[in-house]
Specification:
This protein is of the alpha/beta class. The protein contains ten helices and 14 strands. It has two domains: 133 residues, Rossmann fold (3-Layer(aba) Sandwich), CATH 3.40.50.720; 169 residues, Dihydrodipicolinate Reductase, domain 2, CATH 3.30.360.10. The strands form two sheets. The protein has an eight-stranded mixed sheet with strand order 8-9-10-7-11-12-13-14, with helices on one face. It has a six-stranded parallel sheet with strand order 3-2-1-4-5-6, with helices on both faces. α6 runs antiparallel to α10.
Length: 374
Amino acid sequence: MTERTKEIRTIRWGILATGWISSMFVGDLLAERADAPVNHIVTALGTSSQNKGVAFVEKVWKDSPSPRPRIYDNYESVYADPNVDVVYIGTPHSLHRPNCLAAIAAGKHVLCEKPFAINELEAQDIVDAAKKKGVYIMEAVWTRFFPLVKSLQDHLQVHRSIGQVQRFFIDFATKMPLADLPADSRLKDPSLGAGALLDIGIYALMYASLVMAPGNLGNDHPTPKVLSMLNVAEGIDDRDVIILDYAADKEAGLERRTAICTTTLNFKGSETFARVEGSEGTITISGISPSCPGKFTIVKTASSPDKKPAEELFEFKTPPGTFGFIYEADAVALDIAAGRTGSDVMPLDETLRMMRLMDGIRKENGLIYTQDSI
């Protein structure tokens, strides 16, 4: 262990569930980084069986010298483990509320995957419990912590690189073999909160919020007029169209602006997934998916028809061996080390606002989950 490693804060993680999202998150925690601001250690893993846990560890820790976690065949033991500082919840959507509440009751800090809960009522229960207990909690909207997103906000809000934002288009399109999945798949089962809106639509709405009113989160975010169409079949939505119309704000110097957000689980989209149109140019955003952006391009409007528009590319790479989850993991660890109980980048008021927005969209389109009637 180097001298520098001894000086930085160590955070001990307990991981719930062994699905894809957990494997990617843990993989980032295990990556060796010379300039890491935090030393991440995974000390506990909770899953439904020892066999699942062993298989997960063998796969994710295959090339890692990091200590292997203690494997529990239940979640309760993770909450009770004294060697766990913060619990990462990567379970299906419908389990987020009970998992969060149990971890909070045990006095653990919590990073819970998006969506934070099924609806705003559930989310408020979690927030209230965390505040009462005095522990840290955050919704894991990992994309918000990408350096690319911070740079994009600066170009829109500080530098005004394309002038007044007027329109925004984003398409999160991914191909999921819904017809071939079992009925109890988390991607297909309504009781688990399946569907495009909660799974990927939340990213489209996040981008729209960042572009339409950069820097305004939670209760400070203006309320847009919302028009939506969800294609609902067998209790879940597989493709959605959502339009957010923001009124002009003369005090803030903002024109009327509109965001058009589309999502589908039936088609793989292109690398360039979003376009911001402004009075003085455009910004296109690209990456392997909207949740994992890699670059954006600013094209300035030409001063005359005979001149070529000025174009500038901004490309961002994640640290070697990581996918990008490490940005939010570092932020959570540093917040906890500083004694904070919430994030300034992804505040709880913003989580509640987004849940409220999605609740309204689902209600308008008749997409009701079992949890909505509780």
